[in-house]
Design goal:
There is one protein chain. With 403 residues, the protein is α/β, with parallel strands linked by helices. It contains 18 helices and 13 strands. Strands 5-2-1-6-7-8 form a 6-stranded parallel beta sheet, with helices on both faces. A 3-stranded antiparallel beta sheet has the order 9-10-11, with helices on one face. α1 (19-29) packs across α7 and α7 crosses α8.
Amino acid sequence: MKTVPLKGINIVDLTQAMAGPFCTMLLGDLGAEVIKVEPLTGDQTRKWAPIMNGMSAYFLSINRNKKSIAIDLKKEEGKEILKKLIKKSDVFVENFKPGTIEKLGFSYDDVSKINDSIIYCSISGYGRNGPMMGYPAYDITILATTGLMSITGEEGRPPVKMGIAIADIVTALFAAISIISALYEREKTSKGQYIDISMFDSNLQILAQQAFSFFATGEISKRLGSAHSSIAPYQAFETSDGYIVIGVATERMWQDFCRIIGREDLLKNPNFSNNFKRVKYRELLANEIGKTLIKFKRDELFKILKEKGIPAAPILNVKEALDNEQVKARNMLTYVTGKYGKIPMLGSVFKFSRSKAKIRYPPPMLGENTEEILKNIGYNEKEIELLKHKNVINKEIKMDVEI
């Protein structure tokens, strides 16, 4: 019988925006039961454009496999609901600004008194100590403070960020790994623990190669556009009808590549006789290759390079990427149906031989599962109606944007 890896793990999710929700979505994909605790106004991203079927596309992208309960945590009755959820949970995840969760009465010390085996994960911009603790952090500010943005873009032009919130997503991945590791450790010790994940630490970690290049040489990495600091040619080139990336990592590939594009003369050029020299004369090499590849059609060139085993890929736009046959082969595009209708959804990256990760729930409407969740922790119909009357929980389920 097929199982899901984290079946039986219950998660209380108090996160909003990107890093926290992406982390808990991954855990939900792996089978954890994720209860998303939202304020009565909802996760802030429910109001972010664009809109699909009355729901925020941003919210939909990172909140599948979760159930939503909307609670006013400033009221004692709301706090009591959260305490009851904590008692039945394995993991507590929050990404409030440091100090906020403590004021609400749900610090790690508070929560561990309710459930001493809980894994408590705090996600923040700069962590729970240091001179920048509590300072506001966004994807772009983290890319700036970790040095990542200084090496992204083209030399002589302003630094740029990636087209996605990579700082948030990297943090989400480290948070998910940390939570799963803590759950594994708890199996041996029966003890919970606190996890302090910061966007700053997470993104400084992926500075890896550039950090060690500095350690080795004392030289500060420069912006190289799509080029590689240690390999050449390794970058994007323009063809007659689009762009293609090519990575020539070995001498055999270099010889084959020159023959494929009809530039055997490059093999005789002493400036390009080995990779070290090609890196040194990268700009000269790129100019030579560029004036040749502009005569090729993108997809025809890719086909030839692929057949010869030269790493290359056409630079696809989002539509082209989603239409790629590899997406279909890997089941990376699917559809889910919620109360707002049928929507496309990216598939799960988790593929096991025996266990099965799957999309069990569509992204929820605000407070969609409030009554179900309350009944599961012991509230009856009369008590639920009283909570609605006192505006402790949401009174009705609505789309993010009325259409």
